[in-house]
Each structure stands twice: as C-alpha cells, then as structure tokens.
UniProtKB/TrEMBL annotation, chains A, B:
Mg(2+) binds at residues 93, 95, 97. Binds 1 zinc ion per subunit. Residues 46-119 form the Phosphoribosyl-AMP cyclohydrolase domain. GO terms for cellular component: cytoplasm. It comes from the Bacteria. Zn(2+) binds at residues 94, 110, 117. Homodimer. HAMAP family: HisI. PANTHER family: HISTIDINE BIOSYNTHESIS BIFUNCTIONAL PROTEIN, HISTIDINE BIOSYNTHESIS BIFUNCTIONAL PROTEIN HIS7. This is Phosphoribosyl-AMP cyclohydrolase.
Length: 134, 134
C-alpha cells in the first residue's frame, strides 16, 4: 500500500483517517518509522516505530505510544519514567512509510537521560559525544 | 551491533568514525533510517535510508547521499532535480539505528515539489493535505 494516489490532492483537501491508515506502507511487521520532534523548539528527539494500533491509541489518548521492536510490546512513552510525550500533531509522509509526531516532551526523551537520542555527532574523522544527561 | 557500550561516555569524549560505523545497528539490508532536518529552521524534511557507503560519501562530499530502497541504488539527492541537500551535521542515535542529518535544502525536499514530505496531517478523524507544492 502507499499514499501515492493521494499525493496530488490540493492543500486543504481531506481524506478519512481510516483511508490513510489502511494505505500506510508498513514493513513486514506492520510498522512505520515515527520521528518525535519537540513542537516549539524543533529539536528532533528520537526515532521509534508505530503500528496501526499504537497510532490510534496515540490519537485517542493524546500521549504517544510506540511499538517496541526490542521488547515486542506497546511502549507508552514515559509510563514508567514519567518522561511522557504529549501529542501536539501527527503527519504522515508522501509515501506513507514515516510519521512525524510533534510532541511536548517532559524531561529527557532518551533512555540515557539526555534530552534527545542523537548525541553521537561526527566531527571530521571522529564522533564526539555531543550532549550530557539532564 | 549497537552503540550501547558507548552510551555512558561523557560529553566531549571521542570515538573514531570507523568504530561507530562498525557498530551501527543496521537492518537485514545494511540500512539505517536517516532523518533530514533543515539546519536553521528545524523543519523535518524527509525520512530516507543510508548504508555505510552512502554515509561515507555524504561526509566526504558534503552532499547527502541515500540508498533508495525502491530503486535499489544510491540516491544522490538533487542530482537530477537540483534540489540538493548540503550537509551541515550528522549525528547517530543512542542505539545506532537512526541518523539525524542537518542539511541546507535547496528548494523542495519532496518529490511532489512540496518543501517537506509530511503533508498528510491528522485533524480529528480526518487527514488534511497541509501544504502545497512550492
């Protein structure tokens, strides 16, 4: 599946959520990549995965729920740590295999207690640890 | 592989690029997800995939090169369209399965000529086309 047949719709035109979810280009495990971005600062916080059920739960509850590939279960971000992600907006990409979730992140998004997960930063031929835990 | 053994290094500590690339947690096709973000505005432009060779080429040339899963070939962004992505920075995430590439995007990032690919935006039970081609 793919959203390709809808890509030429004009700005402001609408589809049903069910139509879009039925046309996502999921991988063989029913997953699509989801990018979490802090809604006001623009920081890219993390990349994780969602299936249809976690997308629907996120929209219904307003708290971001992923599918954990390592633990093979639903991952309600912050459920144990308190570092919740409150949903601000959700958008799917042109070919329906990625989601941009704008959120309000409480505290660190990363399990290392850093604000975001992208702290291995290339500098010339090295990679420098570019942030510290909060 | 994974970068887990390095996640507790302090801010400012260094690894070699070769070490990090050798420890990326690639999928069965040798790929990791790469998020392209406009470096100054923070816009998330697109999600694509890179293998080790495309990462190295991107760092060497300063122009972003992906691996196209649909075409099964290197995808030098903007090579035919002129809509190049000039590399500003590259960071890997905590578990080594995602890359954040900050870029300077010339024109539209999306093949639909929209600035970014995330234009299917949820509004209640609908999905609205949230941007127009440039």
């Amino acid at each position: 599946m793919s959203l390709k047949e809808y890509e030429n719709l004009a700005k402001g035109e609408k589809l049903s959520l069910d139509t879009v979810l039925a046309n996502l280009k999921t991988d063989e495990h029913g997953l699509v990549a989801a990018i979490a971005q802090q809604h006001d600062t623009g920081e890219v916080l993390m990349l994780a995965y969602m299936n249809e059920k976690s997308i629907r739960e996120t929209l219904e509850t307003g708290h971001v729920c992923y599918w954990s590939r390592s633990r093979q279960t639903y991952w309600r971000k912050g459920e144990s740590s308190g570092h919740r992600q409150t949903l601000v907006s959700m958008s799917f990409d042109c070919d329906g295999d990625a989601i941009l979730v704008k959120v309000d992140q409480q505290g660190p998004a990363c399990h290392t207690n850093r604000r975001d997960c992208f702290f291995f930063t290339v500098e010339n031929n090295d990679v420098v640890i570019s942030s510290a835990p909060l």
